[in-house]
Predict the structure.
Amino acid sequence: MTELMNNPNFEILRQVAEGAGVAELRIILTTYTEGRPILESSGDIAKYARNHVFNKDRLDMQEEVFVLLLDMNQQLIAPYQISIGTIDQGPVPFAPIIRAAACANASRVVLVHNHPQGSAQPSEADIDLAIALSHALRLADFQFDDSIVITPDSHSSLVELRLLLA
């Protein structure tokens, strides 16, 4: 834990969380003892998110929304929790995402959230959100790589489903 707290990204993102003013906003950082993974595919992202980001005990109970902040080489800087929602929705304010990406000096952003009811099929709301977030991030000079829906056993990528252009 000491190594994690001494990492400069921890302090930057802690300050972002304190200033964000969003209820239930918290930071989840990777332990840098294992190195920062390169997340090149939706499968890599889903596996990492399932094993290191989501609380496995709540994966099928309530929707949680995270962004993975990546550098230009798709290497993880940090996962960042945006919200904890209900059984079928989680709020996604754009300002904390853009603020976190800027403070972490990220180049790329991936949105990941779970569907507690078990279907990895993206909803119309998921698609609309991803398109709007993509536009907002592009205006702020960040690349939005994908929006991925996670379940305990599967995942779907809006880019792979051709519902979102990366």
Summary: The first strand starts at residue 26 and ends at 27.
